[in-house]
Amino acid sequence: MDARDIAAQFDLGAGAKLSAGPVARGRQGAVWRLETSDGRWAVKVLFQPVGEDEVRPATLFHEAAHAAGVPTPRVCRTVTGTVFARVGDAHVRVYEWKDLKECDPGLDPALVGEVVAAVHQVPWTEAGPVHPWYREPVGPDRWDELVGQLSAAGAPFAGRLAALRDELVALESWLEPPAALRTCHRDLWADNVLPTADGGVCVIDWENSGPADPSQELACVLFDFARTDPGRVRALTSAYRQAGGPGDVSRRGHFAMLIAQLGHITEIAAADWLHPNARNRRREDSAAWIGEVLAEPHTRALLDGLLRAVDSHDR
Is the pTM of this model over 0.70? Predict the structure, then answer.
């Protein structure tokens, strides 16, 4: 990529210089650091091109969140007002640079609760249905198909997935439609709610934003940042409520988004191992991704424990 071309298209100043390589990599793209006379910028290079119309709602929500004071990088637009630019063979977008630390599920739960509450109060609501990724089951037939294919192909994690199959199917019986819809981030895992160098937090990767139930998203946050620690559940929940968060995790159905999302992540990671692609070019990458679920699965016992922790706090 040509650093000067990026800086010119996004009006970022002179003396542009890119990092020697990506400074971060996700499932959808890689991030490079750009330095110019006007500051530092995060340049995201997508693995697969995406149209402007596809990202417009999520980008508008991100910009509304930034304007509302949610700690998040500012979206940079091109001189013509678009989000994406073509730079050589690359499809890129640019954000304000933030000095972020490594992913930390042990991040102060009060900080997490406060920032999630802020996200859930952004004055922006997107109309439209909830994407199947966040509400539909994988289903017993598909789980059986994957287990059979992985076992036949000698996948190193095939046995662990087979052992978890009945639990995954049972969890899908908890699924219920989202109730109080509003625009949510829909990807508030620990790798997108990051500690900053100055002791705060920063929310990144808003591309998957869209309609969801805040209670169901809060349940995802409790799982990723609290797991089996009742004290962290109570601290996060208290901070969320005190900051005005509208969500409330009080029944099994509130874990529907978590169950659907982690189910589909597991399904996609398994499929990528069978058929490597741009998202996971090496089987080792797919195995590591599915390993995040298999290492500490979202079992009924664990989720019921989270519910008990919230309930004891309320009492």
Answer: yes
